[in-house]
Amino acid sequence: MTKILDKPGTRFGKLTLLENVGKNRFGQSLGRYACDCGRETVALASRVRTGKNISCGCLMDAHRATFGRTLSKSAARVEGVVASTAQDITGKRFGRLVAQRPISLGVFKNGRHKRGWELLCDCGKLTRSTAGYLNTGNKQSCGCLQKEIAAGNFKNDGFEAYLIDHEHAARASHLYFVEVDGRYEKFGIAFDVKRRGAGHFTEVWHTRQMPRAYCWAVEQALLSRTLHAGLSGHDASLRVGGTSEIRQGLLIDETIELMDALSDECLRLGWQRFFAEYVPVGT
């Protein structure tokens, strides 16, 4: 059966078919293509049609010039697997990341490749992600941004940190109210209260599980409302980040009721609006 040839002018990735030039010695159809970079190339029509070749080779040359290394054979084979069908985000910026080239993130059971992108971070490191996840705004760096803002969560400037690091803000955490060394009550947030308080908590009065940013916002509101509830005389070693979170003489039942009421309100409003309405400026 005679195979139907592609029409001149048909575009595949960075290549545009100029003419069909016959077959090779194995009977495979060949085409002459113009690349967007200005060069021409002759390639197997089947490889171009299936997206295995999407350029004359200039994409690999650009990768070598940028990163000082050649694509591995496996990476070269899937160079065009993504670009022929996926959203083209080449050169687009996502926070500190700039999309470099399409890559395969794996192979599904049906043989199709999972489409992904290699990204260059402003810090110089390479990372990977999917276009869909990048478009959500949840990935802004190779991980360097998270490291830089992590300390902010212990200096009462977590608001900006959580706005930037959506993944960290959404992690399940516990807002806790505990007794420390049998003398003080303390508000805090942790992924695991037992591990966080090993050797310090003698009584766990109350916990509430919510996304970390919500726990933090309610913690700030609680601290501001108990600011004058007996701060004198506590051990300086129990200070965190230079700001004491220790409270003395709190009425347990009333405090638990306050925690639940503020948590419910935070979940209703969202942590950003709640923080703006319930935490006084300068707290």
Count, helices? 11
Mean pLDDT: 76
Secondary structure category: alpha+beta
Instruction: Note the gap between the termini.
Output: 79 Å
- Total DSSP E strands: 12
List the helices and strands and how they pair.
Blueprint: E1 11-12, E2 15-23, E3 29-35, E4 40-44, H1 45-49, H2 58-67, H3 73-77, E5 93-94, E6 97-107, E7 113-121, E8 126-129, H4 131-135, H5 144-150, H6 158-164, H7 166-170, E9 172-180, E10 184-190, H8 193-196, E11 201-211, H9 212-225, E12 246-247, H10 252-269, H11 271-278
Antiparallel strand pairs: 1-2, 2-3, 3-4, 5-6, 6-7, 7-8, 9-10, 9-11, 10-12
Report what the structure shows.
The protein is of the alpha+beta class. The chain folds into 3 domains: 1-54; 57-138, no CATH class; 148-278, no CATH class. The protein has 11 helices and 12 strands. It has helices at residues 45-49, 58-67, 73-77, 131-135, 144-150, 158-164, 166-170, 193-196, 212-225, 252-269, 271-278, and strands spanning 11-12, 15-23, 29-35, 40-44, 93-94, 97-107, 113-121, 126-129, 172-180, 184-190, 201-211, 246-247. The strands form 3 sheets. A 4-stranded antiparallel sheet has the order 1-2-3-4. Strands 5-6-7-8 form a 4-stranded antiparallel sheet. The protein has a 4-stranded antiparallel sheet with strand order 11-9-10-12. Strand 5 (93-94) and strand 6 form a beta hairpin. Helix 9 packs parallel to helix 11 and helix 10 crosses helix 11 (271-278). The longest helix has 18 residues, at 252-269.
